[in-house]
Structures are given as structure tokens and as C-alpha cells.
Design a protein that fits this description.
The complex is a heterodimer of chains A (363) and B (76).
Chain A: H1 10-24, E1 31-37, H2 38-46, E2 57-64, H3 66-69, H4 72-81, E3 87-91, H5 105-110, E4 115-117, H6 121-130, E5 135-142, H7 147-159, E6 165-172, H8 175-182, E7 189-194, H9 197-202, H10 208-214, E8 218-220, H11 225-241, E9 246-248, H12 260-269, E10 270-277, E11 281-290, H13 299-302, H14 318-322, H15 354-361
Parallel strand pairs in A: 1-2, 1-7, 3-4, 3-5, 5-6, 7-8, 8-9
Antiparallel strand pairs in A: 6-11, 10-11
Helix pairs in contact in A: 1-11, 2-15, 6-7, 7-12
Chain B: E1 5-13, E2 16-21, E3 24-29, E4 42-46, E5 49-54, H1 56-69, H2 72-75
Antiparallel strand pairs in B: 1-2, 1-4, 2-3, 4-5
The chains are: A alpha/beta (363), B alpha+beta (76).
The complex binds iron/sulfur cluster.
The site of iron/sulfur cluster has 14 residues of chain A, from helix 14.
Amino acid sequence: MKFQDEFRDRALVQNMSVNIHRMAKRLTAPVNFMEVCGTHTMSIYQYGIRSLLPENVRLVSGPGCPVCVTPIGYVDKALACTNDPVNIVATFGDMLRVPGSHSSLMEKRAGGADIRIVYSPLDAVSLAKNNPERRVIFLGVGFETTAPTIAASIIEAARLQLKNYCVLASHKTMPVPMEILTADPELNLKGYLCPAHVSTIIGAATYKPLSEKYHIPCVVTGFEPADVMQGVEMLLAQTLRGESRVEIQYSRAVSWEGNSKALAILHQLFEPCDAVWRGLGVLPGSGLAIRAEYAEFDAERVLNLDVPDAVENPACLCGEVLKGKLTPFECPLFSTICTPESPVGACMVSSEGTCAAAYKYGR
Amino acid sequence: MCLGVPMKIVSKDGDTVIAEVDGVQKEASVMLLGEEVTVGDYVIVHAGFAISRLDEEYAEETIRLMREVFSEEDMA
Ligand code: SF4
């Protein structure tokens, strides 16, 4: 397949590895680079990228899997939505197994709740159109990549004058947590492989304030193995030169200014709000709330969704995994009690979750 | 769920395109794209929407540079 095969060329990736080893000899101390996206994490495990890097160049996984950073309280609200038989809960597939305080959507569905998996938010709008006597609640999770698609679904529902479509929104934006993690001395991050598809929307220029304030190199990097290796090489080159700039490795898809049309639709529907991130807590201005003008499409406003305080499984170390402080292998539940079939934490659910990637592909 | 797949547009009708990858065809909306796309273009499809057009020239340039910088002889 074009745009994939060339970037999976083994010999090329091997050569890049040799070059990175050579460059790394000039480092005076080990460096930690964070890959922000869950898709990066998946690719790094799948292609064994860590084994191609020298010991003093470490990749740590960041909070870039939207399902994983979704707080348990949100899952509890989604579960509460399933209690009213008038409701159809529509969701992307990977939310299904995420454990809430006492149950999961999967279990609710087995118990008879009407939960539909959709591929596109527009499919959820069609569901609402075709079931006028029901109410369709779409679970809106995801970063800046997904938020515009949800916004588009609300615009479409408004155009169709649907009164039975709403979104339980829990969208998050990437730059705020990156700033928090950069400032964390324990992580000691020296560079970012910035998210690829998030950046197609927000544009690479978004990372400039971060790189300038913290003197940290940022490279917007694609997901194929050769992309990731080149991203690492570019970060290393900057480190060795003492630079801290934003660069675009993934130039075939990402521009400096991003996708202005998608951003306009996103801002038309959403405004910044504080948001709870699993593992990171409440981060000011890191979420997206539906604007008051579109209140009738906001499940939080339409429904009464007061749920009791969430119950975390104290043994799950997802929070530390999401901050890049622990690897899944350091969690005592990993692959013994916690598996993709019966996940204890969200990181084991989504294929982009660090624990799920580690489980599937090993070291 | 963040998955975005590079797909080739095989037909277009208004804001809706049919895009293909590995023989699988899917419908996608182009209403979030700021630029015009036509049949034969590659786009990244995420959750039923094309979110970015893939630039063939940049793709080839990236690969060419990778091969140049990381060529065999250089690695000896
Ligand atoms: S292995 Fe399971 S329990 Fe441990 S951190 Fe990962 S998701 Fe949580």
C-alpha cells in the first residue's frame, strides 16, 4: 500500500538504527523522549523499535490514548445512560470494555442495554434519524483529531432538526498535559515525538510555545517504523546541537498551521474547559465542553447524570503508566490478573493503550 | 480509536467520497477538509471523515531523504 510499505522497509529501518547508535555515542547522559500518541506506542511495540535503539536513548509512553485517559466517572455516566430503555448509547468500539466503578458497557449490553458500536459519529446521527421515538446518546471521547468529527455530527443533527441526538462529551486537548509532563523533573524529558494525527488538525506551530518555554525539542512524527526512527534521529540531532525547535517529520500529512476548516468547526461547537485526566488529575483548560448555543445536544445538560463518586481499583497502576513513570511490566497485575479479555484498567483495553500494546507485542 | 488510515479516493459525490485501502472500501465525509480533493488523491480517514490530504510529493521527498541519509555505504 502506498504511503505505508515504503515506510516499513526493514533495511532502511536497520540503517537508521545503526546511525542512531552512532549518534548516541556522543551523548553525555541518557535521554528520555516521550511518544505522545497511543498509535506511536502501538507502532513502537509492534515493530520492536526499542530494541533498535541504544540504551541511552529511551522512549517513554505518554498519555495519548483517549480511552485510557478517560476518567472512571465518565464511564459511570455512560453506564447510567443505559438504564433508561428509551436511550440508545452509541460509541466507538473500544469504549465497550473499559471498566467503570462497578460494570462496563459490555456487561450492560449482555444484560440487555441498547448499546451500538458505530464507526463514524454520522452513523449515530443516522441512528437518531431512523429511531425518532428513541434518544441516541453518543459517547464523545477523543482528542483534537476526533472532536471535529463529533462537532460535525452535531451540526448535521441540527441541520436535520433532530431533537433526539446528544453527545456525552469528554474531549481533551493535547498541549496542556504535554506542558505538565515537561515540567515534571522526575520524568526528565528531553524531547517529544509529537502526535501525528492530532497535529494534522492543530498544526505543528502549536508546539512552539512549549519548545521555547522549556527548551525542549519537538518533532511531529508519523506512525510507520521509518517515521518513528527518523523522528528519534531528528530529536537526537537537535539534542546534540543543543537546539530546541519544532520540526515536522510527518510532512506528508501535517502542516504548520493545521486544518483550519476542522478547527473552525471544532471551535464553533466547543469551548475550553477543565478536564479530568486519568493519572494526571484535573488539568485546567485541557478539555472541550459543548457551547451553550448547542445545549440541546449536550447530554450533560439534557439528562440528569449525577453518579456517585467513582471507585478506582487501587491495584491498577494506569495513572503511573500514563505519565510514563512505570512500564506495564512493572505492574503486578500485568498479564496475570489484567489481560485484554478481562482488563482491570483502561490502558489494557484500547489497542492503543500502553498495557494492551505491551501485552500483544511484548518487549 | 485515534486510528487514521491513509486511503485513496475512488469516487466522490459532493461532500461524500468512497475511499479504498487494501481492497476495502469505505465511505468518508470530506466536510472537514479545507482543501479540494479529487479522485486519485490520498487522504487520512479517521472516524468516517477525511482529516488531511496526503501530499505525494512530500511523501516521496521524505523517503528519498531517508534513503540518502541512511544509505548502505554510509553505514559501513
Ligand atoms: S496492567 Fe492493567 S492493572 Fe496494570 S496498569 Fe495496566 S491496565 Fe492497569
